Structure formats: C-alpha cells, structure tokens
Amino acid sequence: MNGQPRRSAYEVALAQFDEATSQMSHLSPNTIKFMRVPKRELTVNFPVEMDDGRIEMYTGYRVHHSTVRGPTKGGIRYHPAVTLDETRALAMWMTWKCALMNLPYGGAKGGVIVDPRQLSERELRRLTRRYATEISIMMGPEGDIPAPDVGTNPQVMAWIMDTYSMHRGYSVPAVVTGKPIQIGGSQGRFEATGMGVMFMAREALKHLRLRVEGSTAVVQGFGNVGAIAARYMHMMGAKVVAVSDVNGGIYNPKGLDIPSLQTYVRETRTVMDFPGADKINNTELLELPCTVLIPAALEGQITEENAPKIRCKVLAEGANGPTTPDADKILMDNGTFIVPDILCNAGGVTVSYFEWVQSLQAFFWSEDDVKRQLERLMVDAFNSVLNESREKGLPTRMAAYTLAINRVAEALELRGVYP
Ligand code: GLU
Description:
- The radius of gyration is 21 Å and the shape is globular.
- The protein is α/β, with parallel strands linked by helices and about 425 residues long.
- It folds into two domains: about 35-175, Rossmann fold (3-Layer(aba) Sandwich); about 190-345, 3-Layer(aba) Sandwich (Rossmann fold), CATH 3.40.50.720.
- The protein has 14 helices and twelve strands.
C-alpha cells in the first residue's frame, strides 16, 4: 500500500464515478455535479434498553443518494464498522445498481454501528424497532424501501414492517422487502442475491468459453450471499474448493460438500473445523488458483497489495465494493474477467423490486415466475454490459457504470432542476 492510508469506501465510490464520467463527454458538468452527491443524510443516536436494564446508546444512519428515477431502495446493515461514509458509498452504489437493472428506484442505504451477534434476540428487536422509528421520517412504501444487508435478515425486516405499521394503524407490507413470506415476502427473495451471482458467473464462463462443470470456485463470506452462491455453484457442477467466514477459511482441493457444510454451519454457526477440510486464512483464500473467485463479504478486500496474487479467471463480485480502483487495473492487466458488483449482486434488489410490486398489488407470483424473471433481467443486463464494453472499449466495470449513470442523467435532464 506504499504507506498510503487505505481509501474509504466512499472515496472508492467517488473515484469510480469520476473515472466513468470522465469518459462520458456528452454529459453536462451540471448533471455530473448533481449526481456526485447524496441527496439527504440522516444520523440518529438512540437508546436501547439491554436485558439487564442498562441503557446503551447506538448510532445509525440512513442516506438517500438519488430520487431521480423513483423512490429510494437499499439495505440496512448492522455491523461494528458501519460509518456515515460507508453508508454514503453503499447508497451511491445502489443508485447505479438500480439504474443498471432498469428498476424504477434511486439508491439508499442504512446502517447501525452494532455487532448483532453480541445482542440477545430481545435486544436486537428493541434496537430494530427504535432505529426504524428514528428513520421513519425518511422511510415509506412510496419514498424509501429498506431491505436486508450484512447483519440483518428477514426477521429484522418483519420487525421494521411491524413498527412502521403500528405507527400507521394498518399493515404496510410494501415498506420493506426481504420480509418473511408469511407476511407478504416474495418467493425466491431469500436466495435471490446468491442465485444472481451464480447466473453471472455462468454467463461469464460461457463468454470465456469455459464450462461451469469441472470449474473451481472460491467463496469469501458464508452469509446470505456467499453460502447461497456456493450452493448454486455446487449444484451447477462447479467444485467449491474453499470458503470462509469471519472466523477464517476452510480448503479442500477435491471440493467441499456444500450441502453438508450448510447443515454444519446451521449447528455450529461457523465453517471452521468442518471435517475433511484444511484451515486457511483469508489472505491465502483470496490468492488460491481457481476459475471463479466470489468475494461475498465486505468492501475493500481486493487491493493493489493482493491483486497481483489473485489467480482466478472470473471475479464475480457478490459483495458491494470488494475491489479498489487500483486493484481493478492490475486485474485487468492480468486478464481477469470482472463481473462488477452493481451487476453481479443485483439479484437481491431485483427480486426486492418484484416483492415490492407484489406487496403493493397484494397479488403474488409463483417461485418459478420470480426465478425466470430474475434470470431474464440479469442475463439481459450482463449482455448489455458486455456490448457496451466491446463497443466503447471499456472495462466491464466502467461499461456498467456508464450505462447506469447515463440512465440517471437522462432522467435528471428530463425532470429538470427544481424550481
Ligand atoms: N442489500 C442488498 C444490496 O446491496 C439488497 C438491497 C435491496 O434489496 O433493496 O443490493
């Protein structure tokens, strides 16, 4: 890292935006200026009563980056490393992701600085209800629709939906997505991000004339994205040779039995000490030779430091922002095919959109319909990015960015500046 401090996620998001817009000479400087900043940001400090009667103060955020293409959409993260800057970056990435997928949304993100694993279920419920109340001035089925992200899950979404509904006096299922199916969630939403990652890895391999069967995959992160992506890669005939979670990684060059690993993780809450696999640390895991590398944890994992040692053919970004711009250049020079995050992990928000539409209409789709529509939208988006990349001679990430930014710019110019 040459002694340079690591760039924050927001600095990375801005650098990516600047690089993309520097190639878009048709955009007016006014439009660029407008799109570069978040529309509104809320910081909340709020009390939560712990099980022993103590009061703890927590800090949370909700950032709306853009409302140009519609209501804002984006997850809520519970993690000790949450910051306002990280939330800004994630909100901006949501704007581009929704635009790339042609969803009628702008981008948002929320977060609370907390390690949810340290709280009891009742503490987590109280924290969620209070945070939801605090951000309710910025949330609503027509205005801003949260969803799960790192550290949150369908149960947390159920509490948010209930809190908002209690304040209204009637049930408002469309205020969040990623809710349990029993209260208006969508078939296929839980698996959507991981399934989308698999579709994108499959399309990338097809493009490189490689077969999924017999390919090897390495997955960093074994949460809602990583575990499900690993499962689908395994089902498609790929050999998943290594996976990791916050505690460390496991490796078996012959391939891990992913269904048994999932059962094991349900019982032990970690991948560590899974029988028949060797221990491996996070640094070693990312540098394993493999066909597909799927970072599915946090941002900033592939940097200029480890990029020269990355040995995958396809980098399928399940996480948001896993690769820094400096690392991008190194990977490109080494011929790595990158499926950028705003495309690769867009399955989650795409099925969130399906869920929101179903909740608003109180009319529900079959699992088959959800998965078919998801596959269609993602494969179309993959092909658009590939075409843009070929036509303009841009790396895939920049192709995805320019497509997305153009759509936001067009909407912005049509709507005009108010007043
Ligand atoms: N948190 C997910 C993401 O980063 C999903 C957001 C959503 O469904 O609104 O894309």
